[in-house]
Structure formats: C-alpha cells, structure tokens
Amino acid sequence: MRRRPPALPATLPAALAAGLLAAASLAGCVSPAWDGRDYGLKAAASAESVASAVAVARRAVEGGDRLSTPYLKVLLTEAVTSVRSVNGQFAGVQPPDEGSDAVGEELLVLTGRAEDELAGLLLQVRRQGVEDRAGAVRELAALHEELRGFAEEHR
Amino acid sequence: MKKALAVTLGILTAFGGFVDIGDLVANALVGSRFGMSLAWVVVVGVVGICVFAEMAGRIAAVSGRPVFDLVRERLGPRTGLVNLGASLMVNVLTLAAEIGGAALALELATGVDYLLWVPAVALTAWLVMWRVKFEHMERLFGLMGLALVVFAVALWRLEPDWGGLLEQAARPSVPADEGAPTYFYYAIALLGGAMTPYEVFFFSSGGVEEHWTRKDLAVSRANVFVGFPLGGFLSLAIAACAATVFLPDAAHVDSLGQMVLPVALGAGQIGLALVIFGVFAATFGATLETALSSAYSLSQYFGWQWGKYVRPVQAARFHAALLVSMVVATALILTTLDPIKVTEYSLVFSAAALPLTYLPVLMVANDADYMGGHVNGRFSNLLGSVYMVLLVVVSAAAVPLMLATKAGQ
C-alpha cells in the first residue's frame, strides 16, 4: 500500500473548491426589491416562512404529553428564532413605492403577532407548561390561516 | 449457523448504518414540500449505491486494495488529484454536518444548545476511532441506528392516507405551488443523499480493514443487496412521515427538531426517545465513517500506510489526517453555521462530485488486469454505464440549479 508520490499540480482542486464556495455564497444572497411586484413576492415568501414555523409550533403544542419538555422547548425556541429572523430580514427590504408600505405594514403586524404568541408559549413552557393548550392551538391555527391567506394574495 | 448469523448481522449493520444526516434532512425536507412525488429518486439512488458499492466491495475482496488506492494508479496523478480534492471537500463538509447532527440530537434530548455538544461529540468520535476496533465500531453504531425503524412504526400509528401517499409516489409530478427547477434541485439533493461518495470509499476501505477475500463476496453482496434497500425503505418512511404531518399545512421542515416531530406525534415519548437515540447513533456512526473516509482517501492517494488494522504508530500520517479532518470539520460547525444548511449544501456538492467518485469504480471493476475472473459482467456494465450518464447529467445540473433556485428557496 506504499507508493512514491510524484510532483503534483495543486491549483485545480483549489480553484474548484473556491468556485463552488462562491456559488454557494451567491445562492444564499438576499436581493433588494426592484418594484412593487417584487416587494409583494418577498412579502409572500416571508409570510409563508412564518406560517410554516407557526404550523409546526401548532402541531407541537397539540401533541401535548407526547412531547418531552426539553424537546418542546427546543422546537419553540427554533420557531421564535426563525420568525424573528424572517421579520428582521423583511424589515431590511425597503418598500419601493407607497403601495408597498401598506403591504409591508400588514405583514409585519401579522408576523409580529406570531412572534409574540410563540415567545409567550416558550415562556410558559420554560415555567410550568402551556396553560391553555386548546386556546393556544386555536390562536396558532388562526394565525396560520391569516399568513397563508396573505401569501396567496401577494404571490 | 455461524455464517448465517454473520450475514444477518452484516445486513442489519448495513440497514442501520444506511441513514445519515443527509438522508434524514433530504427525505424529511422533500417529504414536507413534495410529498412522495420524489420517492422515485430514492429508488434510483438505492439501486445506484447498490450497483457501485457491490463493485467497490468486489474490488476490495478480489484485489485486496480499496478504490482510492487504484484511482491514482488507473487514472494518473492529475486526474486522481482532482478526484481527491473534490472528495475531500465534500467529505469535510459532510463530516461537519454529521458532527452537527449528532450534537443537535443531544440538544433535543437535553435542551442544552448543540454548540456546547459539538466539541464533546468530536472528541468522543476521535477517541472511538483511536481506540475501538474497526469491526466493533462499525457494528455497534450500525445496529444502534436500527432505532430509526421507529419512523416506520410512527408512520403506521399516524394512520396516513396510504392511498394518497401511493398515488403521489406512483404518479410523480411537480406540485402546483413549486417550480420544476426547485423539484429537480431537490431530486438532485435526494440522489446526493442516497449515493454519498464517502459511502463507497468507506465500504471498500472497510473491506480491506476486515481482510475480505473472494470467499467474502457473498457476505458483501448480501450486505449491499439486502441491507441498503432496507435502508432505502427507512428513507421512504422518513419522507412519508413528513408528508403526512407537514404537507397538509404547507410547513417546510428546516431543523432536526422538526424532522423528528412526526415520530413524537405518532409514537409518543418512547418513540421520541428512540428516534433521538437513532439519530444520534446514525450521525455519530456517519461521523466516524466520513472522518475515516477522508483519511483513507488522502493516505491511499499519497501512498501512506493507512488503516486501523495496523498500530497507530505504524500509520502516523493516516491518524494525523484523521485528526486534522476532525479539527477542520469541528471548527467549521463551531462558526455557528447551521448544520442543516451545511448538510443541504454538502448534498448538492456530493451530487456534483458523483461522477468523479463512481467513474474510477466502474473503470477498475471493468479491468481484467485487476479483477481477473471477477470483472464486471454485461449487466453490471450496462447498469453502471447508464448510471454514469445519469450522474454526469446530475453533476452538470447541480450547481446551476442551486443558483437558479437560490438553493431551493
């Protein structure tokens, strides 16, 4: 299993790796909104992301005793972090016209409610567990519907 | 009786060891977004890994040399170096993702942030690779990975719409709210998950570590042709669980915690404990395999003494390469890069590098000088060639699709 190594060119794999990493970085970039339509599409995508986090949290809360407390805590922490991140990213996109202002405000009210609801649930889980499970599930389901509706409207 | 037990144990190990963080992430993610409409890719991937792992196992058993050892000899140093560079990059990315996956499993069990677990996982993995015998290491984590069968149990208990799932699988189509580029991007990620390059390097090097000879060909084939398809069944169960729980709500899975939620909902706290245990075993086992694969490929390319079947002092450069791989991957994941995102990228880059991994296997398995009477038959060659064409197409499409879809967003 021993062989003497010859002189080797070292540039090709390095160039390949650099190219692939650059491609990966570009793929993750967030672009600005070019016009009202583009802004609406970004708002719809943000609403979908928050709706997704809310839907998972609803399923988890609904699961009740089938989920251990540390696990539920991790799930809700992830949901809060995800919604906060989406809110932060969307708030960073400047509305290109006056019509877009209203779209942005409507979305941020919805996602703000989602963030508050999820953060509240996380706090309850950290203390003594979810107080009103059925109520929380209803509120999360309603939020999910509204967010989905918003996304459909602006897609 | 003893041989039957060895074969069964090998199959169970291959079954339990099949799923890693890539399979978990790809299948759960795809199930939640596309239902079972990409199940055909899992079938294509499992047949592909069976075809090439069988060849790699046969090469190891007949020639007594693993794949990478023959790559440079057969393809020359320049081509071999491209192969080595691409394989190492994909391996280290995958290794970082596996370490992150094991740490995330510990976070799910304890509630303690995964970043605090990362150094402990890396150190334990390195100690296991340093101290535990190859055979024990492979069997232990492969068998522990069998706990992931709980995905199938949970699916049954979730009482899904079986007809709907079968319909999606039998008549694949792009869902109305997804674009065709995104559909094919995830198809590529799924294929990358099923045919991860490190599996072939590990399988063939493992054959040499275990001193396979022509007599072991039957055992090797049983592992591949029974164990891997069973692993593929597990992949489908993961996707079906995600499709059942998340697809109706259009919820996209993007964390390990979410991926195991269907099991908790279907099988309760015992199921949850089992799946977390299984995820830890699968990702920890894959951490060992990817780290060893990096050191195997590097040592075999440069002609260094390698392997766990010799004392560390006799394979110092191999063990140094192992340690460096672990340190680099651990540092990468400690930068707070999301392990699931790292996995997603590693899957696509794996897919892009697939021809580099599999072409040499096909060439060597087809070379009578190395293989003698065990050279590829017509059917193996036909299947291998069809897969090579597919892999070249996949490789060419992987990065452009990643850019066009903003990594599947």
Description of the structure:
- Chain A is mainly alpha-helical.
- Chain A has one domain (35-154): Four Helix Bundle (Hemerythrin (Met), subunit A).
- In chain A, 77% of the residues lie in helices and 0% in strands.
- Chain A is built from five helices and no strands.
- The longest helix of chain A has 30 residues, at 98-127.
- Chain A is elongated.
- The model of chain A is unreliable at 1-10 and 24-29 (pLDDT under 50).
- In chain B, helix 5 (77-110) crosses helix 6 (114-131), helix 7 (134-144) packs antiparallel against helix 14 and helix 8 (150-157) packs antiparallel against helix 14.
- Chain B has 18 helices and no strands.
- Chain B has a single domain (29-404), classed as Hydantoin permease (Orthogonal Bundle).
- Chain B is mostly helical and 409 residues long.
- Chain B is globular.
- Chain B is 79% helix and 0% strand.
- The termini of chain B are far apart.
- Chain B: It is found in: Membrane.
- Chain B: Its main location: membrane.
- Chain B: This is Mn2+/Fe2+ NRAMP family transporter.
- Chain B: One of its GO terms (cellular component) is plasma membrane.
- Chain B: It holds the Pfam family Nramp.
- Chain A: This is Lipoprotein.
Write the layout of secondary structure elements.
The complex is a heterodimer of chains A (155) and B (409).
Chain A: H1 11-27, H2 36-63, H3 69-91, H4 98-127, H5 133-154
Helix pairs in contact in A: 2-3, 2-4, 2-5, 3-4, 4-5
Chain B: H1 2-18, H2 21-34, H3 39-63, H4 67-75, H5 77-110, H6 114-131, H7 134-144, H8 150-157, H9 162-170, H10 180-194, H11 197-209, H12 217-245, H13 256-259, H14 261-302, H15 316-334, H16 339-365, H17 368-371, H18 378-404
Helix pairs in contact in B: 1-7, 1-12, 2-10, 2-12, 2-16, 3-10, 3-11, 3-12, 3-16, 4-5, 4-14, 4-16, 5-6, 5-14, 5-15, 5-16, 6-14, 6-15, 7-14, 8-12, 8-14, 10-16, 10-18, 11-14, 14-15, 16-18
